[in-house]
Amino acid sequence: MSIKEKILQIAKQAKFASRVLANLSSRTKETALLRMAEALRANKERIKEENYKDVEKAKEKKFPCAFIDRLVLNEKRIERMILSLKEIAKLEDPVGKIESMQKRPNGLLVGKMRVPLGVIGFIYESRPDVTVDASALCLKSGNALILRGGSEAINSNIILTKILNEVLGEARLPVGSLQLIKTTDRRAVMDMLKLDEYIDVIIPRGGESLIRTVAESSTIPVIKHYKGICHIYVDEEVDLKMAEEIVFNAKVQRPGVCNAMETLLVHKKIAPDFLPLIIERFQKAGVEIRGDEKTLNLIKGIRKATEEDWSTEYLDLILSVKIVKDINETISHINKYGSHHSDAIVTTNYEKSRKFLQEVDSAAVFVNASTRFTDGGEFGLGAEIGISTQKLHARGPMGVNELTCTKFIILGDGQTRE
Amino acid sequence: MSIKEKILQIAKQAKFASRVLANLSSRTKETALLRMAEALRANKERIKEENYKDVEKAKEKKFPCAFIDRLVLNEKRIERMILSLKEIAKLEDPVGKIESMQKRPNGLLVGKMRVPLGVIGFIYESRPDVTVDASALCLKSGNALILRGGSEAINSNIILTKILNEVLGEARLPVGSLQLIKTTDRRAVMDMLKLDEYIDVIIPRGGESLIRTVAESSTIPVIKHYKGICHIYVDEEVDLKMAEEIVFNAKVQRPGVCNAMETLLVHKKIAPDFLPLIIERFQKAGVEIRGDEKTLNLIKGIRKATEEDWSTEYLDLILSVKIVKDINETISHINKYGSHHSDAIVTTNYEKSRKFLQEVDSAAVFVNASTRFTDGGEFGLGAEIGISTQKLHARGPMGVNELTCTKFIILGDGQTRE
């Protein structure tokens, strides 16, 4: 069978399975998810063995440390996957929920029922724990799932989906419910992106070039997960200690992820008090600072930020710093240079907190908290299949609700239109 | 200025205006919409005069009657536009509404705030009343709007947007709030579809080839409004008189629209009682019947339906008829051949009504009512910018809510991530 034929077969099986999954009882899905958690626990050693192969190969190929770190499935990560399965099991089933039923003047009852999207194609890079999160979210939301993971995680993904599929088999669910594309040939992705007859949505998660390629080649609707150029604005009216902790956390706690801060904006009145303090702390933690003209006047020996810095996602221990004259300049800067991902204000002023929440055009807007919280688990969604940076359909962390859509249901007693 | 430069300028102005529109008070929007209603009433004669030019030109060009009918702005249609402005004015403002605020274990409050999409590009064919509906829905939902209507309605669209813009001017709203592309050059559309930096969503409404061209050329997300192959299933357990009225209404009341019935499915047990009766009534009303083998056995002298008939949107006084053995065959047929638009069951049986509602994968699923009700006004949305046949973001009639998206808002008191 050619790759093209194989992918077509996978897509057809998924479509068939999606009709069955859409009508499962909440209890069946919950039981299967809890069984999956048990199965992962019972198979920890198998998982570690297969993952070890991937990790060794990545080391041979001299991948960067951060990359290898993301690939590893250790005890802690396996336990986290188990926890996430249990949390998703306990979530309310979104499917079949009826929202906002209203009665029309002619007696028609018009409501919206939440239903699965159908078949999800998920293209992601090399974090194998995402395989389990995505599988659990799609089962809970009644969707069939086609997984295409990074080639470096192939052994881990094969064993994980094998274990999950054993549980689905015991529950007599169709084989198309959860499928992994096992070939690492890139043509498989290109073939998949054209099967709009069978696949309802493509979710790419990974580097910018992957997402751009997918978006350009796909005839299936794509939910994009682009980069995060996140800002924190420290207002003049502020608890300086709180600002320091939030800002430090957002940059340093995990700099290589999309919700880490890349640009710090500071009100000019507070800058002389705040910046020397926080910049010293940053520099001790190994953070390189790139400042605007005004920051350079205040702090000696730091590099000047170029126009390009304001729109760069460093994903590293680098921070651009700008002194602003007020909240309006702040909001303009964020809406112009940001990537509409996650942005925060630290302030004690009520009006400014409201203005910031309202006017910053981003997927997640924070008051007095670190941008690092943009995450499905932290937002109470159990897990996430990704963080959407687009406006249509889903914005921010995507959980089970975002993997559904609605249909109108209309209950009549013989109404006809005049 | 070249067309390309002109379109770019329009898009930039719209982007600028969208920031202002997003933050308007509900009262400002309501007042402007009511003023628009008054302005249309005060300018009826100007509207009719300009519309007359379009209609005369269409007659010269020998366009079909149905086309010319859609183009006409008579007293009744202008009054309907006025009514629709008033209804949209009274709707609840969706912008700024906060949904589902929850408290997380660490004390963070996580909620979703409804916000405008930003800039809408609306490409539509020759019904000028749609110009007013779209303008009103976009203003209410805080979006800037770029209109590109059919060239045959150009004079009508120019006068309508001129009147609406006079009101926006009095309210001191930016010029980019509501713009009509006045050139009828097709390159203008192609240029617009590439301006993803400024336009957030493209909504094409019209024939299938228009929508397909737009979807293929656009780098901006598109909400598609495809055809309607709508079904009605008459169950064996049924009020025959109710079934007759619903089925007749869905085919004959206005056959040229997307929510008219194209295929009638009848349970085999009721077919001998129901079909002779309804087919005679259809034939008297000039409806051509195309039946499957079993229907042909029951009713003499009708044409045989081909495989192609089951997936054809006639938009005309033609109906395909099929006798089915049960509700499962019905649901399979609809999900296979339908266009996932609007489908209905007529039954007195509770379980079958629930099964149909749950398993038919369409934007609007009806029990005991005509499919002709799929419409923003009828569903209580005030009006509609179109009827989405896709699953992502919006499905079915799109009103003000569907022209918004959500952003997460997070209220903390100093939380940082461990």
What is this entry, summarized?
With 418 residues, chain A is α/β, with parallel strands linked by helices. Helices cover 42% and strands 21% of the residues of chain A. In chain A, helix 2 (26-42) runs antiparallel to helix 5 (75-90), helix 3 packs antiparallel against helix 7 (154-170) and helix 10 (240-252) runs parallel beside helix 11.
Comma- or semicolon-separated keywords:
homodimer; 418 residues; alpha/beta; Aldehyde Dehydrogenase, Chain A, domain 1; Aldehyde Dehydrogenase, Chain A, domain 2; 2 domains; seven-stranded parallel sheet; four-stranded parallel sheet; 16 strands; 21% strand
In words, what does this structure look like?
Two copies of one chain form a homodimer. Chain A is α/β, with parallel strands linked by helices and about 425 residues long. Chain A folds into two domains: about 5-225 and about 390-410, Aldehyde Dehydrogenase, Chain A, domain 1, CATH 3.40.605.10; about 230-375, Aldehyde Dehydrogenase, Chain A, domain 2, CATH 3.40.309. In chain A, about 40% of the residues lie in helices and about 20% in strands. Chain A is built from 14 helices and 16 strands. Chain A has helices at about 5-20, 25-40, 45-60, 65-70, 75-90, 130-140, 155-170, 185-190, 210-215, 240-250, 270-285, 295-300, 325-335, 350-360; strands at about 100-105, 110-115, 120-125, 145-150, 180, 200-205, 230-235, 260-265, 290, 305, 320-325, 340-345, 365-370, 385-390, 395-400, 405-415. In chain A, the strands form four sheets. The first copy, chain A, has a seven-stranded parallel sheet. In chain A, helix 6 (about 130-140) links the parallel strand 3 and strand 4 (about 145-150). In chain A, helix 2 packs antiparallel against helix 5 (about 75-90), helix 5 packs parallel to helix 6 and helix 10 (about 240-250) runs parallel beside helix 11. The termini of chain A are far apart. The model of chain A has no long low-confidence stretch (mean pLDDT about 95). Chains A and B meet through strand 2, helix 10, helix 14, strand 13 and strand 16 of A and strand 2, helix 10, helix 14, strand 13 and strand 16 of B.
